Amino acid sequence: MTRNNSIIAGLDWWTIFLFLGIALFGWLNIYGASYTFDQTSLFDLSNRAGKQFLWLGIACVLGLAVLFIEGKTYEVIAYLLYAGWLLVLLITPFLAHDTKGSLSWIDLGPLKFQPAELAKMITALALAKYMGRYDYRVRSWRDLLVPFLLLVVPAGIIMVWQRETGSALVFASLMIMFYRFGMSGYVISGGLSFALLFICSIRFGGVPLPWGEGNVGILLCYLILMAVVVGFAWIREQDWKQALVLVGIVALAYAAGLIINVWHTVNFNIVSLIALVIALAYFTAVVIYRRHFSLLMVTAYIAVSLVFCEACAMVFNKVLQPHQRTRIEVLLGLKDDPTGAGYNVNQSLIAIGSGQFTGKGFLKGTQTKLRFVPEQDTDFIFCTVGEEWGFIGSAGLLMAYLIFILRLIFIAERQRDNYSRIYAYCVASIFFFHLTINVGMVLGLLPVIGIPLPFFSYGGSSMISFTLLLAVLLRLDAERLNKLH
Amino acid sequence: MTNDPYSRRAYIISGAVVLVVMVFIIRLFWLQIIDQSQKQKADSNALLRQVIYPSRGLIYDRNGELLVFNQPIYEVTLIMQEMRHGFDTVAFCQCLGIDSLEFEQRIAAIKDKRKNRGFSTYTPQIFMAQLTKQDVASLRETSYKFSGAGIRKRTLRGYSYPYAAHILGSVGEVSQADIDRDDYYQAGDYSGRDGLERTYEQRLRGTKGVEIIMRDSRGRIQGSYHDGAEDVEAVTGTDLHLSLDIQLQALAEQMLQGKVGSVVAIEPATGEILALASSPTWNPEILVGKQRSAQYNRLLNDPSKPLINRATQAMYPPGSTFKTIQSVVCLQEGGITPNTKYPCSGPSTTPIKCTHHHGSPVSLLGAIEQSCNPYFYCAFRDMLQRDGFGNNNITFRKRYNLWRNDVLKFGLGQRFEGTDIGEQAGGAIPTERLFNRTYGEKGWKAVTIRSLSIGQGEVLATPLQLANQAATLANRGYYITPHLNTELTNDPSLRHETGMDTTWFSLTAQGMHLVMTNGTGRWYNIDSLQMCGKTGTAQNPHGKDHAIFIGFAPMDKPKIAVAVVVENAGFGATWAAPVASLMMEQYLTGTIRRKHIYNKMVNAVLEHPSEQQ
User: Fold this and answer.
1) Choosing a second label site near B148 at 20 to 30 A (CA), which of A118, A142, B189, B538?
2) What is the pLDDT of residues A400-422, one digit of tens each?
3) Same fold, B49-241 and B246-612
4) Could you tell me if A201 and A221 are in contact, meaning their C-beta atoms sit under 8 angstroms apart?
5) ipTM of the complex
6) Which architecture characterizes domain B49-241 according to CATH?
7) Where are the alpha helices (DSSP H) in B143-245?
8) Gap from B520 CA to chain A (nearest CA, Å)
9) Is the Cβ–Cβ distance between A266 and A213 less than 8 Å?
C-alpha cells in the first residue's frame, strides 16, 4: 500500500487538471457544434456530446487502470507489443470498412476503433526501450538507423497500406525527440526546407514573372537557396565580406539580365540558376581553401535541392494522376474546389472571425451549426470555440495547450532514467504535432490534413488513445521518486 | 544525466512550441479583432453550395445523325431540418403514389450514413429519383404544403434508334468504388457504366457547376449570394462524333434477328468502324430511368447472354477465312511461290481431307477459290519445314515463331491497344511454349499442328479481329486500329504495318475475288461492286458449325471490309456470306435491291444451344 500511496503522491496533478479541463471544455463544444435548436441534454447518449462524455468516462477508467500497472512492465513487453501491433496494423485493412478511401477503422461493438491511434504510443514505448539502454548514445547517423526504422515501418504501413496519410504524418513528430537526444538539427531544418521548396515550386510555379520569361515559383526557390548560402557565409563563417560578394554576384546577374531584357527577352529562371551556380562555386572554393570541409555539406545540400526543385515540377505535371494533382492544387489554394477542402477552411475562417472578442456565447453560434461541414465536431471543432467563445476562449484554450505541452517537456526533463525521458519527449512531440497541424489547418495556415485535436475532437478512439498515452507517462513520472536510492 | 551535451535543446524545443502558439494567437487576433470582413461575411448568413448538374455530351453518327440525347427527369429532395416545421406525411405519400412503409424505408436509407455519406439534416437529400414529369406533377402543385420538400431537374439519356446498344453503353448511378476513386462524384451521381459512355465518361460528363445560396440562422433559404457573382456555371459535356453509319448498323442488327452472332464493318483506309452489331441485343431505351436495374438484371440472367458484346468479346476459330492470312504469310516466308501447285484428291486426301471437288493439282488462286484444305496444309508444312528441323527441332521451332509473329501482325492474338472499345477479348494464336508443353520440344512438326493451317484448333479470333484482318487484306498490308470516335482517325500511333510484300496481298485479293465470282461466295456476288471474300465454317464442340465470312469491296480502292459470324448456323457460304454481301451493297450503293435475300435473312430464326437448357 505504501508503494501505491507514493505513486499517488508522485502524480503530476498539473497535467491531470489540464487534461480534465481541456476534455470537459471539448465536451461542451461538441454539444455546441452538433446542437440543432431542439436538442436534448448534454448527457443524452443519442447525441454526440453525450457519447463523448461516455468516451471520456471510459478513457478515465482505462487511464486509471494503467496508473496501477508498474512502469517496468512496459519496458519488458515493449518489443513484443510493438511486433504484435504491427500485425494488427497489417490485418486492419482486411477488417476495415472503407471510410473516405481510408482503410483504418474497425468496428469493436459500438466503438469505431483506429489501431493507428494506439500505434503512436506503442512506437514511443519501443523507441524508449531501444534508445533508453544505458550504453546507447547518438554518436553518428548509424545509431539512429534502428530508431528510424522503428518509426518508419508503422508510419509506412498506415500511409500506404491503410491509406491514412494524416495519422502517418504524426510519426514525423518523433523527430523532435531524436533532435533532443542528439540528432543533428540540420535534419529537421533540411526536411522543413524541402517542404518549403515543394510548396513554393508548385504554389507559384504557374505564376509568370512580371518581366522577362520564367515563373515566380522557381525564382523563389533559387532565392531561398541563395539565402541559405549567404546565411552560412555570414553566420557560420563569420565572414561578412564573403556574404557581401555573394549578394553582389546575384545583384550583378539580375542587373545584367534586366539590361539585356530591354532588347531581348531574358529567362530569369536561367539567370537565377547561373547566379546561384557561380555563387555556390565561389562559396565552395573558399570553403576548400580554408579547409572547412564540413561546410561542403552546404554545397551538397544546394545541389540536391536544385534537383529536387526540378523533380517537383516534373513529378507534379507528368507522373501524378489528374485527380491527385487536383487534390494538391486545392490544398495549396491554386484551385477552388466547389465542395471540398477549400470550402471547409473558408467557412471555418468566417465562423472564427464572427466570434469577435468575447464570442457569441455558448450554443449561440450560427455559423458552426449551418456550416454543412461533416467534420465540424471532429477535425474542425476549434472553429466552434472561436465562434462561441471568441478570442478570449480560443486564445485561452491555446494557452492551456501551451502550458500542457510545456509541462510535459518539464516532466521529461526531470526524469532520471533515459527510458522515461525519451517516452515523455515522444508524448510531448505527438501532442505538439497534433495541436500545430489541427489548429494551423482550421486557421487556414496549413493544408487540410485530417487529424484530431487531442482530448477535444469528437471520437472515442482518439480520446482513449490519447488518455492512455498520457496515463503511461504519468505512471512513469510518478515512479521517479521510488528510484531515488 | 549530469553531462548531457544536448540539454540546451530542451529550451529550443520549448521555444518552438511557444512560437507556434504565439503565431496562432496572432492569427486569431487578426481574424477576430482586426479584420472585420469575416464578421460581415458571417452576419446572420450562412452559405450553402448547391451543385448544378451539367448536361451530358451528345453522340452523333458519321453522317451527323443524332443517336443519343438528353431528356429531363425529376427527383424529389427533402431537407430533414425543415420537415420539423410541420410535414403531412400522408398527403406527401399520396402525391408520389407510395405507402407510408416505403416512406419510412426511404427516410431510413437517407439517414444511414454508411450508404449516404453526405448526409446532413440541413441540405437537400434525394428522396426519390428518376421520376417523369407526370410523376411529380401533383407534388409540384402542392409543394408549398410540404416544407423542406423540393423538386430537382436532372437529365437522363434518350435514344433516337433502338440499335447499337452494345457500343453506346449506358448511364447509371455511380458505385461506391467510383466515388472513392474520383473526387468528382458524389452518391446519386450518374456516370457511364459500359460501352462508349464509360470509355468517354470524362469528356461526356462535363463539369458540375455550383450555385451559392444564402440561408438565415435557422437555415431558411434567403436568395443567391452576391447576386450569383461567385456561382460557377456548369460546363456541358463535349459531344462525340462516331464513325458509325446508323443505317448500316440497323441493317446488320435486323439481319441478326433470331440468330446468335455478330457483324463488324470497317472502312479500311481509316480504321473507322461503320457497324458493329452483336445479337441477341436490346433496345438501349430499356436501361434508362427507374426500370434500369430490373431490366439490367433480366439481361444479366438471360441464358443467351445478351450483355456480352459478341462482336468484340466472343472468340471463334476463324476456319477457312484464315486461309487468306496463310496465303500471304506462306508466300512471304518462302513456303510457296505464286506458281506452286499441290495435288488434291478430294475427300480421300491425307492428312487433311478436302471438302470440295475440283481439279488437281491446284494452284494458289484455285485453292483460295475452292477453299482447298490439302493445299493450305502443304503450304503451311513447306513454310515451316523449309529448312528442316535442325538440332533438337530448333530450326523448325524458329520457323514456327516466324509464322506466329507474321500472323500477329494482322491484329490477331491480342487486344487492340489505343482504341475506344472498352470490352474486348484478345483471341489466341498458340505459342511455341504451348506445343512444347503438350508434345515436348522435339515432339511436334507441321503434321502435329496441321489444323492451324485451316484456322481450326488453337487459333481463336473475335469478329472485330476478323473484320480488321479483312481491312488489312483490303489495304494490301497495313491496318489502322479499329475505333469508333472519328477524332482518333488521324492518330499516327494507330497505324500498323505488316511489313509484308504488297504483291502477296494483291494475289490473295485476286483469290478472294475468285471466291465471289466462281467459288463458295458466288450465289451472293454483285459483279459491279468487285466483291472479294472468303467463307469459313468453324467446327465447334457445342453444336452445329459456326458460319463465318470475311470480305471487302470493291477490290481496287476498297471502301468497306466486313466480318460476319453466325453461331451454330452451318455453312459460311449459306448464312454468313449473304449478310456480308448485303452490308456491302447497302454501304456502297445506299440501298438494297436484292429484297428476297434481305427478307430471307431477317425472317430466318436459327436454334441456338443456349435455348435448349
Assistant:
1) B189
2) 999 999 999 999 999 988 899 99
3) no
4) yes
5) 0.88
6) Alpha-Beta Complex (3.90)
7) 165-168, 176-181, 195-199, 201-204
8) 54
9) yes
